[in-house]
Amino acid sequence: MPVDIQLILLIRHDLYRIGLQEILNECSCGQLNVVTATGVASVALQSFAANPESVIIINAKLAEESGIEVTKRIVAHDKEARIIVMTDTKISERYAVGLKSMGIRGCLHEDMEPNDFVEAIIKVYEGEILFPL
Length: 133
Prior knowledge:
This protein is 42% helix and 21% strand. It has a five-stranded parallel β-sheet, with helices on both faces. It is globular and about 35 Å long. It is an alpha/beta fold. It starts with a strand and ends in an 8-residue tail after the last helix.
């Protein structure tokens, strides 16, 4: 298993972002390291420029622009970016195909069990594409 996977969290709501960061720190046994946790796209983009090997976890819904729009900006600069979109709704197979074609490596539901979420991040880091429907 990999050690010290760097994460960038771009999550809209403070409470959810802070809680997710704590869960990831607690459940990952030191394998995951949150280098940036923010609700501001420009901050996440700056962090990704400095940490291009990071896995980016993006809310589908953000305050200033959609997570999809931010993803397009990231992929325009780095087609190999490891991006996971978090959603609170079930996605259709058609929507998943569209997300994959944009370069998104995973789309995970916000109600996943913490250990399953950690495992999914590791799999995306290792190159797997995850779109559980």
